[in-house]
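Morning - S-adenosylmethionine inputs below, output right after.
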Amino acid sequence: MSRVEQKVREHFHADARRFDAIYDERKGPLTRLIDNWWRGVVRKRLEVNLEKLAPLAGKTILDVGCGSGRFCIAYAQGGAARVVGVDFAAAMIDIARQIAQEAGVADRCEFIAGAFPEAVGDEQFDASTANGFFDYIEQPAPLIARMRELTRATMIMSFPKAVEWRVPVRRLRFWVKGTPLFLYRAAQVKQILADAGVHNYEWINLDRDYLIVAHL
Ligand SMILES: C[S@@+](CC[C@H](N)C(=O)[O-])C[C@H]1O[C@@H](n2cnc3c(N)ncnc32)[C@H](O)[C@@H]1O
């Protein structure tokens, strides 16, 4: 595992509970306001993923960098037949398994604690998603190419914008913690997708992200 991967894994292992709290509706008005401003994109991404993957019934889906499993669980609740989430932060996977159990969808969700792509085999999926993942990836193209090989129909991927009003503060926060962060200009995303062999896609400007919905 590279130095960047080690730092990212340590960060999310330690930060898992705080990260998952973004999805928790039970919080005070001030925390809710701040979360909406800074991290509202996290929940907006989930809404767009659900909309673009509809109908979910019977589908198989791979979620790369699944974190606390909120997307996987929503896919299963929407009727997906099988969902596989992979994340190398063990604390994230622990939360995902617990929430899937509580939501009654654990039988259709598999959570793998390991690095993508090494920890995932050759199983093919109808769709694959990677949200808030490429923010932490030094070389996205080979990973996207591997996602493409494992996907039959649809891939959804977010890339954080390099030019955006929240960027200076976000960069500072990550710099202070020593956690790597990768941000993208539109031209870079287009080049990465071309390098990965992804050519047919919708381009969505979603808050602080570019959201790509690729049709294979
Ligand atoms: C910001 S979280 C996003 C979680 C989830 N997709 C969501 O939107 O709620 C990014 C996750 O990617 C994981 N991650 C980063 N690089 C990874 C890799 N190469 N293999 C597996 N997981 C990785 C981190 O551990 C972290 O939990």
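Note: The beta strands are 60-64, 82-87, 109-113, 125-130, 151-160, 201-206, 209-215.

O.
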